[in-house]
Amino acid sequence: MVMAGGTGGHVFPGLAVAHHLMDQGWQVRWLGTADRMEADLVPKNGIEIDFIRISGLRGKGIKAQLLAPVRIFNAWRQARAIMKRFQPDVVLGMGGYVSGPGGLAAWSLGSRWSSTSKTALPA
């Protein structure tokens, strides 16, 4: 399962990895959000996609910030239910808000998972 969403900087590298895995015979599913670019691009690339509800907080005000823990918990529950249903062999987070609750869901289920960050600075 590939988790990526929001911007092309997350989605396009995720698509490249997904296509490589499919070329190797892997069945790939995607975890994303329904209101961002992955909702359109991923199915057009022949990949099944499941959605969770998660978004950023920037510019959304104090109410959204106060409700953030509840929203993150709900997104984790959604991701966990999807992963329990499909039981992916490996979960790969390629970035975007979906990768946080998705990564926690994979970890909580004991799934093999990895996360990449293209914005990290070398130590």
From TrEMBL:
Its EC number is 2.4.1.227. Residues 2-110 form the Glycosyltransferase family 28 N-terminal domain. This is UDP-N-acetylglucosamine-N-acetylmuramyl-(Pentapeptide) pyrophosphoryl-undecaprenol N-acetylglucosamine transferase. It holds the Pfam family Glyco_transf_28. The lineage of its organism: Bacteria, Pseudomonadati, Pseudomonadota, Gammaproteobacteria, Enterobacterales. Signal peptide: none annotated. GO terms for biological process: carbohydrate derivative biosynthetic process; carbohydrate metabolic process. InterPro entries: GlycoTrans_28_N (IPR004276). GO terms for molecular function: undecaprenyldiphospho-muramoylpentapeptide beta-N-acetylglucosaminyltransferase activity. It comes from the Bacteria.
